[in-house]
Prior knowledge:
The complex is a heterodimer. Chain A is mainly α.
Amino acid sequence: MTRIFPQPFHTLLLTAVWLLLNNSMSLGHILLGLILGIVIPIVCQPLRIPQPKIAKPFKLIPYVLVVLKDVIIANIEVAILVLGPVKRIQPGFIAYPLTLKDDLPITLLASTITMTPGTCSCELTEDKQFLYIHVLDMPADEQSLIDYIKVHYEGRVKEIFGC
Amino acid sequence: MSFGFELAISILLVIGGIFIFVGSFGLLRLPDFYTRLHAPTKATTVGLGSILLCSMLTAYATEGRFSISELLITLFLVITAPVVAHMLAKVAMHHKVRMFAKTKHTELVDTARMQQPPASDSSSKLDS
Lengths: 163, 128
């Protein structure tokens, strides 16, 4: 069974995305989607790097809502900064000390940081200890920004992956 | 189409237009490469989001069906935008792109380029 469905969740996801892309539920598309959903995970299996399992999938929902709220606030803040006088902008780099260890949680955190208020993740150190972040408008107190990311995003990502 | 739908659709279109305009305007206006990176990755997310929402509403109001492809566009956008921004920032670091004079902690770029942890003096301050 595991040889035919190495990734049962991916099979379902690929079929669903195929049906959504075609915007139809006809039998032909369901069959074609299932074939793609079965063949692609088998072909891709040797390429996969083992990733930690999502321990608490339901924690993803509040996480997405928090990020969505922050994205909307970020948009308004960045819009005001862009339209205001350029001299007021104080950009800067910070090194964020990571406590996550695995690739998938770090990717999720880095993507979240890029999508939210005035921050953009630039580089990860080799030993996965620090994430370099470019900040569009650096607050006077840099530690407050690090604490905000730590409490709001990294803590929640840790809960989701249960590590 | 009822008046309510027309009103909602036009408000969404105007909001979307404003945010996408601000995002593009930021590209023109901000002082250096790194700050310009922020405008298109963020200021356009809400803009594009409201235009996609408007597209779903229009499909529902005119044809009476739920169109789901817009959700897929959102999904792909959310997955790809941060990766592209990350790669651009990485390339900029390696090319030693000129930075805005007021940028704080420019010394971090040198260690970031080598994927090494920051030098001990700045890390002890930030690591506490």
